[in-house]
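User: Hey, quick favor. My workstation is busy. Could you predict this chain's structure for me?
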Amino acid sequence: MIRILVKSLFVSLFLISCNKDISDNIENPQVNTPEIQTEPTFNVIFTENITYSYGLSHESVNSESITTMPLFMDSYVPENDSENRPVMMLIHGGGFFGGSKQQQAIVNIANYFAERGWVVFSIDYRLKNDYGTVPQEWIDFSVNVDPSSLAKFFAIYPAHRDAKAALRWIVANKNTYNINSDYITVGGGSAGAVASIGISVSDLEDYKNEISIYEDNTLLSTNLDQPFEVHTILDFWGSNNSIEILEYIYGKQCFDSNNPPIYIAHGTEDTTVLFSKAEQLRDIYEQNQVPYIFYELIGEGHGPWNATVENIRLEELAFNFIVEQQELIQITN
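Assistant: No problem, here it is.
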């Protein structure tokens, strides 16, 4: 079943996240709207292991024994002469315990969109066994967390901190890649979808300012002053868990009418991230009257990347949603 909330006439072309900062506004968006190809058109230039920042790794949660580790991303750049490209950042899944930026499904999506004109970045981030630094408020709150979920809970903060650092790096380097930062999509599967929602809906200072540069001097490598705004979220079988954590710990309310439009695809038989989490997210978007599309993948479990809806693959459905919400110009050869 497909459910979609049609854009209100009062919704701006450039929907922003919970933060109210607007980066690099342009006077005439129609003139500067990127063109993309409906069909695969461009060769893709792949560059591996670009360092986007650094992060601390502890021997255990916030232990004094630390090392500094580089954080890497891969880029997929269309081989064309466009100076006005939309951009996508992909975040891999793995329950914040494992996975990599070169998961096959992520590579497939990256090439799909790069072949059509997007600049795509796939990122790695610190995982559970890296023991990234966690704010004291999270440690204090952890007494309320089920012990079986504690390792994942502590892994969420550094993962989101890193994902935000990666997005700031992308915007800071937009001229190198001829990126139009008014057309940003962030997406991923499972934990990657959780992080995509988390960094797109939270305020700019969230998952950044809770730890000072005196506690973690690697923050200085993360383009701290670079604003960004996400314009579309791709949620493949994720949830709003990381936003819920912010709300519980800090008393925040991030979901509102300014959130980016979201594409939700979720298996009805998912036992890893329950289908009810997708329904909850859908209901939040509906209540706030923000554009969304909701694909109920009937009978599917967790991670059905090859699923189709009316014989249309998920990446094509995502393409259609981004083009509609960002009002990109489609070129058909």
